[in-house]
Amino acid sequence: MNALRSLFFGLLAPVIAVAIAVVATSVVIIASGSDSGVGSFWSIMLAVPQDRILVNIVNQSSMIYLSAVAVAIGFRMNLFNIGVEGQYLVASYAAATFVGAALLPGFVNIVLGLVIAIAVGAAWAGIAGLLKTYRGVSEVISTIMLNAIAGIVVSYFLDKYGVHGGNQVNTATAPESSWVPGWTPFTSADGAIWSLDLLAVLVGVGFWVLLSRTRLGFDLRATGASTTAAVASGVSVERMTLVAMLLSGGVAGLIWMPAYFGSAHVYGTTFQAGLGFTGIAVALLGRNQPLGMVFGALLFAFLSAQSNSLTLQTDISSSVVQITQGVAVLAVVVAYELVRRSRSRVEQRAVARATAPVNQEVAA
Amino acid sequence: SKKSDTSATDASSSASDDICKTADGDGPMIGLAYDVGGRGDQSFNDSAYAGVSKAVEEFDGSCVEGEAEDGEAESAREDRLRQMADAGATAIIGVGFAYSDSVNAVAPDYPDVNFAVVDGYDPDSKANDNVAYFSFAANESSYLVGVAAALTTQTDEVGFVGGVHNDLIKAFEAGYTAGVHAVNPDIQVDVAYIEESDLSGFSDPAGGKTAAAGEFDKGADVVYHAAGASGSGVFDAAVEAGDGMWAIGVDSDQYLTATSTQQPHILTSALKRVDVASYDFIKSVNEGTPDTSYVTYDLTNDGVGYSTSGGFLDDVSDQIDEYASKIKSGDITVPTAP
Amino acid sequence: MSPQQTVAEAAPEVRLSGIGKRFPGVVANHDVDVLIRPGTVHALVGENGAGKSTLMKILYGVQKPDDGTIEIGGEARRFSSPSDAISVGIGMVFQHFMLADNLTALENVVLGAEKLHGIRGAARREFEAISERYGFGLRPDVLVEKLGVADRQRLEILKVLYRGAKVIILDEPTAVLVPQEVEALFRNLSDLRAHGHSLLFISHKLDEVLAIADDITIMRRGTTVGTAVPAETTKRELAELMVGSELPSPGTGESTVTDVVQLRLEGLGLEEDGRAVLSGIDLTIHRGEVLGLAGVEGNGQAELVETIMGMRKATAGRIVLGTEDITGWTTRERRESGIGYIPEDRHRHGLLLDSPLWENRILGHQGERPNSRGPWIDREGARSDTRAIVEEFDVRTPGIDTAARALSGGNQQKLIIGRELRGEPVLLIAAHPTRGVDVGAQAAIWGHLSAARAAGLAVLLISADLDELIGLSDRIDVILRGRLVGEFDPSEVTPRDLGAAMTGGDQ
Amino acid sequence: MSAPAPSTTTPTGGPSPLAQRYARARTKGWLLVLGVLAVVSLVRIVSGTDDITSEATLRAAILAACPILLAGLGGLWSERAGVVNIGLEGQMLLGTWGAAYFTYWYGPWHGLLGAALLGAIGGLLHAVATVTFGVDHVVSGVAINIIGLGATTFMAEAFFSDLQYGGPRQLTGLDPLPYVTVPGFSDAMVWLNDQGWFLVSDVAGFLAALSTKLSVFTILIVLLVLLTSWVLWRTPFGLRLRACGESPSAAESLGVNVYLYKYVAVLVSGAFAGLGGAFLALVSASGFVTNQSGGRGYIGLAAMIFGNWTPWGTVGASAMFGYTDALRLRSPEAVHALLLLVALGLLAMAALRGWRKQWVGAGLFGVFGLAFLLWYLLTDTVPREFTGLTPYLATLLVLSLASQRLRPPAADGLVYRKGSVG
Ligand SMILES: Nc1ncnc2c1ncn2[C@@H]1O[C@H](COP(=O)(O)OP(=O)(O)OP(=O)(O)O)[C@@H](O)[C@H]1O
Ligand SMILES: Nc1ncnc2c1ncn2[C@@H]1O[C@H](COP(=O)(O)OP(=O)(O)OP(=O)(O)O)[C@@H](O)[C@H]1O
Ligand SMILES: [Mg+2]
Ligand SMILES: [Mg+2]
Questions:
Q1: Which residues pair with D119 in a beta bridge?
Q2: Whether the CB of A351 sits within 6 Å of ligand 2
Q3: Which of B49, B79, B92 has the highest number of chain A CBs within 10 A, making it the mutation to test binding with A?
Q4: Could you tell me which residues come within 8 angstroms of residue D162 by beta carbon, excluding any fewer than 6 positions away?
Q5: Which of D310, D330, D350 is the last residue of a domain?
C-alpha cells in the first residue's frame, strides 16, 4: 500500500509533464501554420525507430545520462553546476590529446585516457568549487564563466598543437590499438553500440550506491535537504562542496569518452557539444534520481533521433523538439512540487490519525 | 559550422517555390543534406539548392532535402545521409565540411550511390571511390577582391573582418592581403576576428559591426568580411561610416540580398560557386562519369570569382581580370595562410 | 488596577464566536468564543499548540476561519488579508518578529502604510512622535539588524500604533524578555490601555497574566474552555483549566554531581568581523552535573553553544573535553567523541524536515553504530534503532518512514532528544529543550534529562524559561554581552535576581 | 543591544540622516568615476594607446554595454523582489525575435514593445513556476533558457524564412531607430578628444561619445536606469517590492500582496531582458540572427551581482564589460594597456584594504596587482586568443575579490508561500 502510493506519486509528475509538453508542442506547430501539420509530426516522432536509430538512441542516451549524473551530483546538495559543458569539453580535449599521442600501448593508453578525462574534468570543476568555498563566489556564475573560458582555451591549444588538414583542426588520431569499437546488434551499416556505454551503467549504479548506501552520500543529501542541519550534524559544507564539485566534474569528464573511443578517435569536427546542457535538463526531468534520469536520457535521445526525419519528410523544423524538451522540464519541476505538497498533506493526516487526540472526529 | 556561403542569384525567391516537393521525374534522384540554416539562408545552402534545382529541371529528376541542427550528433548526420540513400537518391550532396566524416562512414555501405561534400575532405587514409570533395579556392576570390579594394581605396588603408579565427577563414585573409599588396605593398590591412573559436562569431552582427566600425575609424575605407551572418553588421558599419565607405561581401553576390540602404556600399563580393559545383557533380553522375576524390573549384573552372553587381568596379574590372588571368596561368600563386 | 475602572458597559470591541480552523491532520481551532471589552487588556492563555496563534492569525486576517464569525465594534467582518484587519484598527505583534533586517526602522514601519504619511518627512515625524509619546526611544534611520530584542519588540508595537490600531494583539511578547524588560513592556501596555487601546495578550506565564490582564480567556486543545477575572482566580485554577491537570514543575531531586570534570572552557573567546562576541569564558561542568546558562537572547549563548560544537571557530582560549583538548577539532570529531546536541531551532539545526524519521535518527550520528559500518550506511541498524527510540521516548508517529515535517513540534523534539541520548553521550548541550512543546512532552523531557544526569551525563542547559533553569540546574552561570557575569545557586536565587544579572541591572 | 538613545530630529524637518547618507553615497560615486577616469587617462598617456579613450571606442563601448545593462537591470528588478532570474538569457532571446518580428511588420517602436512583450512572457513563465508553484529559481531559469532558445529558433524558421531579407535563421534590414547628434557640441568634444590632454581629452571623449550618433534607444535606457533607481528606492511601490526580497513574511504581515509584487517584478525583469534583445537586433546591428544574445544575459546577471544589487553598480559593471568587449574587437593591441589599468586598480584596492587593516584582502589584491603589473611590463601584446577571455576572467576576478562584501537581498532565491506568516 505504502509502496504503491509512493510509486503512484513517483510516476504522477512525469506523466503530467510529458502530457503538457505534447500539448504545447502541438499548439506551437499549429500556430506556425505548417503545411504538413501536427498529424504527420507525431506520426514521424512516434514511428517505430529503425534499427540504426535504436543504436543511436542507446549511444546518445548513455552520453546524456553521464552528463545528467554529473549535474545531479551537484544538484543533490543544491550546488548548481552549470559548468558540465565546459568540464567535458576540456576533459575530452585533454584525453584525446593524450591518447592520440600514443605514448603507451593500447589498453593502458585507454585506461589512462579515461583517468585523465576524469582528472581534468574534476580539476576544471574544482576551480568553481574552490572559488565558492574560499571566496564565496556563486557557482552558478563561476561555472558559466568557466564554460566560456574552456571554449577559448581549448581552441587555442587545438589550433596551436592540433593536426591541421582540409580546413580542419583535430587532435592526432588515436592508435587503432586504443579503439574501443563495440557491439553490432544489427548490420554493420546500422552501427555499433559502443562498449564504453557501459560507463553510463557503472556510473549510474555508483551514483545510486553513493546516495543510498554510503555516509558520504548521506552527508551529500543532508546538505542538500538542509545546509544548517547538516552543519550542525558535523558535515563540513566547504568540504562537501569541493567533493561534490570534483565528483561532478570527474563524471563530466567521461561524457564524450564512449563516442571518442567508439567512433570519433579524434577531438575536433566530430566533437558533440551541448551535452552538458542537455544533462541539466535531463537531471531535472529525472529529478536527480538514478533511475528517473535513465528515462529522461532515453526520452531526450529518442526525441532527437526521431526528429531527424522531420526535415526530410515535413516542413517542420526539428528545433521544435527543443521546445518539447524545455516545456517538459519546466512542467515536470512544477508537477513534482505539487505532488510533494499533496504528499505531505496526506502524510500529516496519517500522523493525526495515528496520534489520535480528542479533536480527531472534528477533523473528520 | 555556421559558415555562411552563397551564390543563389535567386536566393530570396528560391526560399518560396520548392522543386523537391513538386519534381518527380524519373531522372536521377538527388539527396541534398543542408548545413545548419538550411534552404533560404541566402547563403551556400541556397547556392547548393540553386545548382540542384537547375540539374533536376534539366535532367527531369527529383530531390529530397534534409537539414542539420546546431550541436547535433555525428550519428544524426550519418542517419540523414542513409535515409536519403535508402529513399533511392543516387547523388547525395553534403553541404559543408561537417559532412566529411559522416560521408566517409556512410559511403562504403552504398557503393552505387555517389556522394559529394562541399568544402569536404577525406578524414582517413582509405580513399572512397564514390565520394567527391569540392574544395573552393577561396584564397583566389579573396585575392581578386583584395585587388579591387586596393584599386578603390583612397586612404591606402583597408580592412578585413573574419567571423572565427580558424584555418578556413585565415585562407580568406591570406588571399585578400596578398591581393591588396599585389597592387600596392604600402597599403595597410587592418585585420580583426569576431571570435577566436566560438562559432557564434558567424552569428554576431553586433560584433561584426563593432569590429568593422573600428577599422573604418582607423582610416580604412574598404572592409572585406568573411563572417557569415555577422556580415550584415559589417555592411551596417559601412553605411554608418558614410559615403565613399565600402564593404565587400563573401561567398554569394551579397549585393543582391543586401538591403537598399546597404547596396550603395557593397563594392563587390568574393564568389564561391557552390551552385556550379553541385550542378557539375550531378551532371557527371548523370553521364555515368561521376566526379570522385578532390575536385578543386577555382578561377580556371569558374568555381570562384568576384561579382560586379552595382557596377562600382566597371572602370577597374579590366585590371582585376588581368590578375585573374595571371592566377589562372600560374604566374601568380596565391597563399592559403597568412 | 481593577476591572471597575474600565468602562464595563460599552459594546465589545471584538467578538469572536464559533471560530473553527482545520489544518491537514490538526484541528487548530473549534468553537472558539472570545469577547474583548474596549480599553482593557485581555489575556489569552493556553499551552503550546492550544491554538492561540492560529486564532490570532484569523483575527488578523492572515488565515481564513473555516467557520465562525468575527465582529469588530459590533459589526460582522470578513478578513481576506491582514490589510482588511488593519483597516478596521487591528494590529498584531507576532510571536516571531516580522522585521526586515536590511531595511531601516522607519522603512519597516511605513511599509504597507505608505498612504498615511508617505515614506519621508511626515512619516519620520509621526514615527518620532509616537516613539516620544510612549518613551520607546527608537530612531528611524537605524538598520533593524542593529537593534536588540527589546528594541525590536518596541518597534513592532510602534508599527502597530503607526497604523492607528485600536486593538493590539501581542503573541507571547514576554517569551524573549527578562523580568525587567517585561515590567517596562507592561508599563507601555498600561499606557496604551490608558490611551483607550484594547490589548489582546497571549502568554502561558500565569503570574504575568494575573499581573496585567483585566479579563482572561483560557484555551485548550483548540477551543476556549473558560474565562476568568484575575481578581477572582488563582494561578492553580488557571493552570488546571489550561491543561486539565496540575502544571508539572521542573525538578531533579538530590544532586548527582561528581568531581570528575567533563568539560572545561579556558578563556574562550570568539571574534567575528572585528566584534568580540565571546570573551574570557571560563567554566567547568562535572559528570552528573547540569550547568544552567542564563542570558538575554543575543548575549552570546547561541554563539557559545556553536563554538563548543565546533560550528564556529574559537579565536581565543581552549576547550577541553574530559582530558582531550578539542579546540581544533571539527564538529564531527566532537560529536563522535560523545557530545550530544539539542539545538535551539529544531527545524533549522535539528532535523531534515522532508526526510523520514529513520534518516533523521542518523543525522548527527552518521559515524556511529548502529547507523553505519565504516563508510557504509547500515539501513537496517538505523531503522530498528529508530523504532526503539519511538517506543522508548513515546514519539507519536504512524511509522519511522513518516517525514519529520509531519510530526508535531513536541514529537519532533522527543525524537531529537531520543537520538541525542541514545548514543550514551558524555556531554549534552541542551538549548531550550522544551521550547514550543506541550506540557505532557515537557514533563517527559525533564524526566529524560534528569535520568541521564543521574547516569553521569554532564549537561549544559540553556533556557529562556528561568523556572526551568532554576528547577533543573545544579549551578547557574549568567552570560551578558559575551562574558560570564555571575554564578548562582539555584536553591537560593529567584528569577528576579537572575533577570537583574542578565541585564547587568545589579552592577 | 543598542541602548535606547533620545531620538535626534530637527522639528523643522531639515535634511534627514538618511538623505545625508544618500548624498554622501552620491558624492563618493562621482569621486570614484573621476578617479577611474584619471587613472585611465594616465594609462593612456603612459602606454601611448589613444584608442582606449577615443570617442569612437567609447561609443562602441556604450553600444556593447547597453544590452548587458538591460539584462542586469532585469536581474535587479526580480532579485530585489527575491526571485533569482537566470532565465534572462532565454528572455533576451525571445526579445530579439519579438523585436525583429514587430519591427518588420509595424516599425521599430512597435519592435521595442514586441521585444518587451516577448521578454515579459518569458518572465511570466518564470513567475508562475517560482512564485505560484514554488519551483527552485535556478531550476526554472535553466528551463526557460532552453525554451527561449528552442522557441526563437523554431519561430524564426517558421516566420522569417519567406520574408524579404529574411531566412530561417536571420532577418536583416530592419528599420533602424533614430539617432541624435548634438550639433556643435559633438564636434567640439571630438576635437578636444583628439588633443590628447590629460583627463580633459578623456572626459571630452566620453561626452563626445554621448553626444554623437546616439541612438534614442540608448537615451531610453538611461531613463530606465533613473526610473529604476527612483521607483525601487524612492516610492512606496519600490519599498514594498524590496521588502518582498528582504522579508516576505514581514511584508505580508503588513498587508502587502507578496505574490503580486513578485509577479510584477519578474514580469518587468523579463521585459527589460527582452529590451536587451531588441537592442541587439535593432541598434547593435540592423538585424535578427538565431541565438544572437550569445551569453549576454548571463554576463548581465554577473554585472548585477558585482554591481551589488544596485542600479548604478550594475551600470558600472556593464560599462566595464562593454568597454573590454569593444576594445578587444576594435583594437586588440590596446587590450595590453588594460593590463596596466587593472594592475593599478588592484594595487589601489590593496592600499585601501591595507589602510583599513584588512590584511588578507590587501594581500590578495596586492599579489594580483603585482602579477598584472609584471605581465604588462614583461610583454608588449596580449595574444589575440586571450583577449576574448577578458570579460570572463574579469568577472571571476572581481567576484573572487569582492564576493564577501556583496549584500544580496536577505530572501533572495528563497521560495515563499502565502500564509506562512508567523
Ligand atoms: N500552517 C499550519 N499548518 C498546519 N498546522 C498548523 C499550522 N499552524 C498551526 N498549526 C497547528 O495548529 C495547532 C495550533 O497551533 P498554534 O500555533 O495556534 O498554537 P499556539 O497556542 O500558538 O501554541 P504556542 O503556544 O506554541 O504558540 C498546533 O497543532 C499547530 O501545530
Ligand atoms: N508551519 C506548519 N506547517 C504545516 N504543518 C504544521 C505547521 N506547524 C504545525 N503543523 C502541524 O500541526 C500539528 C501539530 O504541531 P504542533 O507542534 O504545533 O502541535 P503541538 O500541540 O505543539 O504538538 P505537541 O503537543 O506534540 O508539541 C502537526 O501535525 C504538524 O504537522
Ligand atoms: Mg533545491
Ligand atoms: Mg503560538
A1: none
A2: yes
A3: B79
A4: B15, B16, B40
A5: D330
Mean pLDDT of C310-330: 92
Could you tell me if B190 and B158 are in contact, meaning their C-beta atoms sit under 8 angstroms apart?
Answer: yes
The tens digit of pLDDT for each residue in D375-390 reads 888 888 777 777 778 7
Q: What pLDDT, in 10s, does the model give residues D134-163?
A: 988 988 998 899 899 999 999 998 899 888
Mutate to test the pocket of ligand 1, among C19, C22, C44, C54 (most ligand atoms within 8 A of CB): C54
Q: Which CATH architecture has domain C260-338+425-507?
A: 3-Layer(aba) Sandwich (3.40)
Split at pLDDT 50, 70, 90, the class of D176 is: confident
User: Which ipTM score applies to this complex?
Assistant: 0.86
CA distance B162 to B175: 13
Q: What is the pTM of this model?
A: 0.88
Q: What residue spans define the domains of chain A?
A: 59-271
In angstroms, the first-to-last Cα distance of chain D is 23
Question: Is residue B46 within 8 Å of residue B11, measured between CB atoms?
Answer: yes
Residue D235, domain extent:
52-330
Domain boundaries, chain C: 14-243, 260-338+425-507, 349-424
Give the model's pLDDT for residue D16: 58
Do D294 and D368 belong together in one domain? no
Nearest Cα to A260, choosing from A150, A123, A114? A114
Partners of A136 on chain D (C-beta within 8 Å) are: 403-404
Same domain as D337, residue D317: no
D395–chain A Cβ distance below 8 A for any pair: yes
Which three cell numbers, joined as nine digits, stand for C342? 539539542
Place of cell 498529424: A39
CA D250/CA C106 separation, integer angstroms = 14
The answer to whether position D415 is within a domain reads no
User: pLDDT-based confidence at C501, cuts 50/70/90?
Assistant: confident
pLDDT at D310: 93
| Residues near D236 by beta carbon (within 8 Å), at least 6 away in sequence | C110, C114, C115, C118, C119
Pocket of ligand 1 (CB under 6 A): C 23, 26, 28, 46, 48-54, 95, 408, 436
What's the topology of domain C14-243? Answer: Rossmann fold (3.40.50)
Number of residues in chain C:
507
User: Would you say residue B13 has pLDDT above 50?
Assistant: no
Give the whole-angstrom CA distance, residue D291 versus residue D295.
9
Residues D316 and D349 in one domain: no
The pairing of beta strand C215-220 with beta strand C223-228: antiparallel
- Are the C-beta atoms of residues D158 and D101 closer than 8 Å to each other? no
